[in-house]
């Protein structure tokens, strides 16, 4: 059965291709972001998940990870460390939120390298990875910026100055509650805060790289930049947490977080 999504989860995972369907495809920058992180950056954190979890609690994954949703459903295992793989299976319906885990990061420019796989256990497997700063006011839950992988597209989102900005969020919600179309100025603003490109998911292992450099967010897959976007929220000076979220199932084999500055 398809899980019930929260408003935040549904927003992140909704198809976004229509937002820029009429725009010309931007030219991808010529950049090997793995090399950039290794040559210019400092490795802040690495986890290959070669251990066993210690239960279902917030800190059960170990090595500094915290699950923001584990304590909502302590009777359900959402994170299983199995043979060096973190296997996530979200209890989205029961918890009222997609499985959401995070780890300390701390950089202005930098990023994460994640080896992941959609195991093909559910129809709508998806993965959201990005950065959070709970200490900044004016943003819902500190959500800064994300890369969102669905079955059919990849989206990049500036949440800080877009849908998670408290003033924008409040104004937008009034129209959603009334099931009315957003006013033209608000819709136009939100379109500048995110892009979407077509992508077809499979069940292979992939190396995913998400980096911020100044006001640019870039997402690469297996050495090729697939999406990039510029927006002021990407330049937030402190990405305190690295975060990933799934409403369904995803496997994570390796995570590295790098600081460039």
Structure characterization notes:
With 261 residues, the chain is of the alpha+beta class. The protein has a single domain (46-259), classed as Jelly Rolls. It is 15% helix and 36% strand. The chain is built from 5 helices and 15 strands. The strands form 2 sheets. Strands 1, 3, 4, 6, 11, 12, 13 and 15 form an 8-stranded antiparallel sheet that branches. It has a 7-stranded antiparallel sheet with strand order 2-5-14-7-8-9-10, covered by helices on one side. Strand 12 and strand 13 form a beta hairpin. The longest helix is centred in the middle third of the chain and has 12 residues, at 166-177.
Helix-strand blueprint:
Layout lengths: L6 H7 L19 H8 L1 E6 L18 E2 L11 E4 L2 E5 L2 H4 L3 E6 L5 E8 L9 E6 L10 E7 L3 E6 L7 H12 L6 H8 L2 E5 L7 E8 L2 E6 L2 E7 L10 E6 L2 E11 L2
Antiparallel strand pairs: 1-15, 2-5, 3-4, 4-15, 5-14, 6-11, 6-15, 7-8, 7-14, 8-9, 9-10, 11-12, 12-13
How far apart the termini lie comes to: 44 Å
- The total number of structural domains is 1
- Write down the overall mean pLDDT: 90
Low-confidence stretches: 1-8, 13-25
CATH classification class:
Mainly Beta
Helix content: 10-25%
Largest sheet: 8 strands, antiparallel
Count of helix runs: 5
| Count of DSSP strands | 15
* Structure classification: alpha+beta
- Give the ordered list of helices and strands: HHEEEEHEEEEEHHEEEEEE
What form results from the Cα inertia axes? globular
CATH topology: Jelly Rolls
Beta strand %: 35-45%
CATH superfamily: Exo-inulinase, domain 1
What integer value in Å does the Rg equal?
17 Å
Tell me the CATH architecture: Sandwich
């Amino acid at each position: 059965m398809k899980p019930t999504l929260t408003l935040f989860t549904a927003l992140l995972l909704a198809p976004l291709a229509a937002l820029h369907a009429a725009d010309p495809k931007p030219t991808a920058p010529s950049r090997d972001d793995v090399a950039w992180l290794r040559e210019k950056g400092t490795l802040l954190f690495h986890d290959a998940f070669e251990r066993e979890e210690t239960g279902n609690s917030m800190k059960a994954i170990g090595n500094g990870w915290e699950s923001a949703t584990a304590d909502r459903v302590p009777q359900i295992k959402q994170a299983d460390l199995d043979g060096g793989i973190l296997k996530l299976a979200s209890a989205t319906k029961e918890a009222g939120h997609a499985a959401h885990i995070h780890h300390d990061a701390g950089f202005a420019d930098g990023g994460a390298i994640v080896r992941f796989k959609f195991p093909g256990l559910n129809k709508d497997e998806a993965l959201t990875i990005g950065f959070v700063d709970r200490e900044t006011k004016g943003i819902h839950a500190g959500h800064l910026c994300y890369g969102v992988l669905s079955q059919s597209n990849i989206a990049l989102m500036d949440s800080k100055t877009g849908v998670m900005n408290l003033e924008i969020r409040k104004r937008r919600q009034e129209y959603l509650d009334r099931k009315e179309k957003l006013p033209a100025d608000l819709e136009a603003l939100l379109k500048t805060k995110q892009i979407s490109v077509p992508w077809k998911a499979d069940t292979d292992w992939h190396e995913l790289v998400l980096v911020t450099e100044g006001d640019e967010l870039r997402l690469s897959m297996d050495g090729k930049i697939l999406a990039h976007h510029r927006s002021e929220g990407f330049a937030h000076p402190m990405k305190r947490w690295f975060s990933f979220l799934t409403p369904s199932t995803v496997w994570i084999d390796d995570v590295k977080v790098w600081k460039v500055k």
